[in-house]
Amino acid sequence: MLRGSLNGIELRSLQRSAPLVLEQLAKNMGVARGAIHDLAAEGKITAVDLLKAMLESADKIGAEFKKLPRTVDEAFTVLKNGPPVDQQWLLCELERRP
Predict the structure, then answer these.
(1) What is the dihedral of CA 6, 10, 12, 13, to 10 degrees?
(2) Which neighbouring-strand residues pair with 5?
(3) DSSP, res 34
(4) DSSP-based three-state secondary structure for 60
């Protein structure tokens, strides 16, 4: 992106780490996802195009993240930051579960 357009290495990185952004980028460019390679090779995908795709896919990405299970650390943070919980009740509830 240093030269203002998406190159091959950056495109491969998007394919691995941000497929929803790549999907939105293809939609915005009016091409099939596979045609993004050709546009990138021709230097036709700008930083503005990529930023727009990232912003437009943010809600969809957020929804996907919400589907992921919480880590133990995140669960404890929620407990710590949430309303006070009767710890004895919580332990009893956890012991009852298989």
Answers:
(1) -140
(2) 46
(3) G
(4) helix
Q: Are 8 and 41 in contact (CB under 8 A)?
A: yes
pLDDT tens per residue, range 6-28 = 777 888 888 899 999 999 999 99
CA distances to 12, 22, 29, 36, 95 from 32, rounded to whole Å, are: 16, 10, 9, 7, 52
* Rounded Cα distance, 92 and 9, in Å: 52
Give the CA diameter of the chain: 64
pLDDT in tens, 67-84: 888 788 887 887 778 776
72 Cβ neighbours under 8 A, 6+ residues apart: none
Q: pTM for this structure?
A: 0.63
CB atoms within 10 A of CB 5: 17
